[in-house]
């Protein structure tokens, strides 16, 4: 009897593994098609300087507009795109799209808008990332100063010496560099001071917890003063309410991104949002 049970368990185990593998394979296939069929869209979330109440720029955030399943969040498909290498063509599409969008908004009469874009580890480490980026900037005649690359601590600290060199090459192109989700990884402060970065983005978990947890508040305060001492900028992510805004203001953090000002918006809705504020 016990033996039979064991066999059933084994069978159940392999079947569910197969299921996972099959699901993954079909996701991979439809991701491939999604690139050809142009099913990705970018949403744009405003970033505000609360001292001047002016727009600093936007962060571009990808969504997959699946013909059957509707909008799919990047948390669902970016990991698969990374595992399969599809993040390379997807990342390229994102870079082209934001260059085009930058000029569309200009044509619509908006001032030039700085766009931040998330760069995955696989993309950053790929041999041709720098030259691809350079080619795209050139082909759109895009001023690199309006492009910000968001990297994570993990990307930079894995091999910090190599990363330092690559960051310098990117800076030479003229783009801006920031560290996303700052505080969640393991940054060596020594390296941090050597990286030619422009901005730290305080991770939203600290923002969320800072009003109830003294330790999170202490982390936010430390990141703000670290940025000050390194003469770089700092922005808080995921700010949802006035209480959080006031605490950040007290800490000296005046660049804000979050639902408090706006959720990420499709390009045309961002235009309306910004036009109404101008
Ligand atoms: P992230 O770069 O840290 O982006 C911030 C995430 O927080 C976004 O989720 C945004 O919609 C969300 N958010 C913004 N404000 C608030 C707020 O006030 N409250 C809450 N609860 N959430 C807020 P989203 O768009 O789902 O993106 C998730 C992650 O997917 C991003 O985290 C980024 O790591 C990745 N991602 C998004 N677009 C791209 C892309 O084009 N390429 C790559 N490689 N990764 C991307
Ligand atoms: Mg980001
Ligand atoms: Mg983040
Ligand atoms: Mg993140």
Automatic annotation (TrEMBL):
Residue span, EAL domain: 24-278
Protein's UniProt name: PAS domain S-box-containing protein/diguanylate cyclase (GGDEF) domain-containing protein
Provenance organism: Pelosinus propionicus DSM 13327
Residue span relative to the full protein: 594 to 871 of 871
